[in-house]
Amino acid sequence: MKKLLFILSCLILTSGLWAQEPVNEELVEAIRKHGLDQSQAMKTAQLMMDVYGPRLTGSPMLEKATEWAVSQLEEWGLENVHTEEWGPFGRSWELQHFEMHAHTPTYWSVIGVPKAWSPSVKADEAEVIYLEANTKEELDAYKGKLKGKIVLVDTLRSIEEWFDAPARRYESDDLLDMANADMPTPRPRRNYNTTGGFSFNKYLWETLAEEDPIAVLDRSYKGDLGTVFVSGARTGEWGSYREEGTKVVPQITLAVEHYNRIFRLLQQGIPVKLSLDLKARYYNPDDGMERNIIAEIPGTDLKDEVVIFGAHFDSWHAATGATDNGAGSTVMMEAARILQEVIKETGVKPRRTLRLALWTGEEQGLYGSRGYVGEHYAEFPEGTYNPQSIKPAQEKVSAYYNLDNGTGKIRGVYLQGNQAVSPIFRSWLEPFKDLEAGTLTLSNTGGTDHLAFDAVGIPGFQFIQDPMAYFTRTHHSNMDNLDHLVEDDLKQAATIIASFVMHTAMRDELLPRKPLDLEEAKSEE
Amino acid sequence: MKKLLFILSCLILTSGLWAQEPVNEELVEAIRKHGLDQSQAMKTAQLMMDVYGPRLTGSPMLEKATEWAVSQLEEWGLENVHTEEWGPFGRSWELQHFEMHAHTPTYWSVIGVPKAWSPSVKADEAEVIYLEANTKEELDAYKGKLKGKIVLVDTLRSIEEWFDAPARRYESDDLLDMANADMPTPRPRRNYNTTGGFSFNKYLWETLAEEDPIAVLDRSYKGDLGTVFVSGARTGEWGSYREEGTKVVPQITLAVEHYNRIFRLLQQGIPVKLSLDLKARYYNPDDGMERNIIAEIPGTDLKDEVVIFGAHFDSWHAATGATDNGAGSTVMMEAARILQEVIKETGVKPRRTLRLALWTGEEQGLYGSRGYVGEHYAEFPEGTYNPQSIKPAQEKVSAYYNLDNGTGKIRGVYLQGNQAVSPIFRSWLEPFKDLEAGTLTLSNTGGTDHLAFDAVGIPGFQFIQDPMAYFTRTHHSNMDNLDHLVEDDLKQAATIIASFVMHTAMRDELLPRKPLDLEEAKSEE
């Protein structure tokens, strides 16, 4: 009966002609009520950031955060709440103490953040030198001279005052450009295993590890005024800091103003002394495995098929991972909560199974989502992300929805070149016109977990989000704290995503797919 | 005779037909060459900030900075370079070490800045409590409960992202408003000695001093993203921290994001532990006297008359005092250097004596400039700034020019209600039209050292300056570093001021004055 009503309401909605993608108004109304009027997004966010942040992959705090999320999802009534292993990730790391002080020309407290995976080091009034080398020969000249020193590796970065706003929302012009974007052309796949040819950077970090200075300082590569952008430590091999036994030089990124001052003093011939005390701990789990969080709302007549919605739950370490990606994780958890409430209230059960996934290891390379996809949906040859073969379960996933571009509300969807979903999404966005989320773009967007699904032929989507201060201020910075989340934006996103997920679960067919050319993928091996 | 000429020149000016205030084109050309093309402003600024900053009044670093400035001015060939005492200021202070760490819910390094005149304190994993009191009764309920605790005194401050630019230059509309401003009405004079009535804040800080908590934390009252605004410690009596024997509670201002996180954790019932180590030293000079820096370029036929140009040289302690007021001090020193070069090159000597003044104690209440004015130009009754009588030298000062509103270039002059100087300044600005400095406003501006001169009837002027990020980011913040100075703006300001100073020295008459009603001032006593 309900189904009949649903179909009828669809027919009515197809104003004029027929077969427009149906929208269930009852569901939309209930979703809006629980998502916009009775939101718990900020309550969830506050716990995730203030109490369970930062969530660096492998860290004890991520473990606690995982336990909290699991119990929270269970409390909301989700089913099959569990974690799934991926890995091995390698050793993990946690900061336990940091302070840094300058003694030239008078005392000042230096603003800086250790890079993740930096080892402990303590030094009192150590001499600072600038390593001025752009060639192997110039670098070799420093051999034997770095021990016992604190080494600057960056030049001065000039600052311009902010005559433009650091934060923004998309204007019509921006959205129009996206709406009018062409079908994307395939991007060259990243190849991390570049070999051959001399790499100065590789040589630099290998030399630094050998020469064993007290610490290496660089400056925040963007931002100013106390905002420091910082992620993982550098080593000769990209990301090898996670391998047990790799020698990592202690590395600290300074606020640009403080770095520049030290740099200028040295350039004037004024010796600079710095003291620092960095305490950090490596964690070496026996098997090096990490965990994603999975939770479900079971489907009914099509329960073997799934709709997955997720976000990465891990963060970098310098703040509490609010916009990257506590926002996305909060929104996805909130979407699950909304759907639980809506199902309870309306009695409308999803036909397909709804599956929430909170990934880890995203910041180091989408490891959690890729591990999950490798486990369930495709075989990958060692060290590549081009599938060798597809597993049967791949055909049962209608879509994967992702959120990972900060706190900004949803302005539409990146279709990742999947033209056929366009009219479907257009219909689903229709009831949220007042929430300004109407733009569909054929464009790709990258850098986050939907790519893991897209790579194996599962329709994977990241939503278009207002940029806010994401790239200018909070993304991977020491200021990615709860205060930079915007409640109304999180509520809007959770509401729209809940509706997308539920409509994906209710339609007769799976979402249309782009063709996946396994042969082509294989030929690249 | 002089008065007659003055009246005549007024008549001439009023007629608008002839005898416009003269501009010496040779001087202007030479000033532009040395100010714009051969500037040394950034070299001076770099020394003043990176090497001789911060310059908190009374601190050893201000003493070094003073020695440097004196020797720099002598090196440039200025004459009669000396310091003049004012005071007593009381004890002074210098930070020697600061670190702060949170241990809840996991380790994080807390961004904060001790308020100046906070005493040393060290604590390990101390409990934090929020002092929630708005009345005497509520506050009294905490008696006996604060010892051994770290106390929060502020509520949470919500942050909005910056959808407007933090930095700006004046637009035509802003300048037009200034140009069209009415004659200012006298402002009520500040009275620091308010008595009578219960002051909650006074009681709060007295109670805190008695109850002796480990430290009191507040949050930066504005700014975010790592920028912390901080000045002097609070006590029951405003500014009494300088009095030897005053008990000052250690006070630290936190980055708003970090304060908010601690506050929210406590509100959720999650205990927070903080460690801190603050080392600071008080300096108690025997006589408590501080020093202004004075330097001259001697005049010729009117050498007993002077043109004074100055800026305050002291700063707060949290950064290096770049925009407040290294910028102004740099510009005034550079103007002196430019004038030396111009005089050497053109052979044109100033008729009146040019006197550069770098004041100290401005941040605590314009003490340096007021001390100078009290020494040379007027008698003040104890504890007031309304002159009782005028000293003869007052009549020999043509003008005092001041710069203290950050790095922004000059857009014009605040006339402080002195209508008669308008046509004169209009002529002097004419050769700098290309530098966008053409606006004269009858308005007052306050808060800096020209007020000390204006109060005793000496024409005192502060220039209109582009606001830049002064009030949003750098003024009294931990980010007031050299990087936030804009070289082109400093060059422009030094050039224009050099020309104003020289033209003031060359004209036949002193600048016209506003009437000074000593009787009215006296009646207020």
From TrEMBL, chains A, B:
Keyword entries, A-Z: Carboxypeptidase, Endoplasmic reticulum, Glycoprotein, Golgi apparatus, Hydrolase, Lysosome, Metal-binding, Metalloprotease, Protease, Secreted, Signal, Zinc, Zymogen
Keyword Membrane among record annotations: no
Location in the cell: Endoplasmic reticulum; Golgi apparatus; Lysosome; Secreted
Domain Peptidase M28: 292-501
Tree of life domain: Bacteria
Secretion signal span: 1-19
Major localization class: endoplasmic reticulum
GO molecular function: carboxypeptidase activity; metal ion binding; metallodipeptidase activity
Pfam families: Peptidase_M28 (PF04389)
GO terms under biological process: proteolysis
Single GO cellular component term: extracellular region
SUBUNIT field: Homodimer. The monomeric form is inactive while the homodimer is active.
Protein name: Carboxypeptidase Q
